[in-house]
């Protein structure tokens, strides 16, 4: 979810101000969902999975010119 009024429109986890990019960065350096949940106790594992879906969608995006 993104809103131009929150985090300058960066995608964020719904209902939070936590940027998706932050969670993806944690996952990229090897943090587990459990590590992330320990650092952000208000998150749920159900909120982390869509971050990976978002990254997959970006990786599959093809610009049509």
Describe the structure.
By secondary structure, the chain is mainly alpha-helical. The chain has three helices and no strands. The mean pLDDT is 85. Helix content is 49%, strand content 0%. The longest helix has 16 residues, at 45-60. The chain has helices at residues 20-28, 33-39, 45-60.
Shape: globular
String of helices and strands: HHH
**Class by helix and strand content?**
mainly alpha
Instruction: Report helical residue fraction.
Output: 40-55%
Which segments are poorly predicted (pLDDT under 50) over 5 or more consecutive residues? Answer: none
Global mean pLDDT = 85
Q: What integer value in Å does the Rg equal?
A: 13 Å
Share in β-strands: under 5%
β-strand number = 0
SSE topology:
Blueprint: H1 20-28, H2 33-39, H3 45-60
Helix pairs in contact: 1-3
Task: Provide key terms for this protein.
65 residues; single chain; 0% strand; globular; mainly alpha
Brief description of this entry?
This protein is mostly helical.
């Amino acid at each position: 979810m993104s809103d131009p009024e929150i985090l300058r429109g960066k995608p964020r986890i719904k209902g939070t101000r936590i940027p998706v990019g932050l969670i993806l960065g944690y996952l990229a350096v090897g943090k587990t969902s459990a590590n992330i949940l320990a650092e952000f106790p208000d998150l749920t594992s159900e909120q982390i999975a869509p971050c990976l879906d978002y990254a997959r969608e970006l990786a599959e995006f093809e610009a049509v010119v």
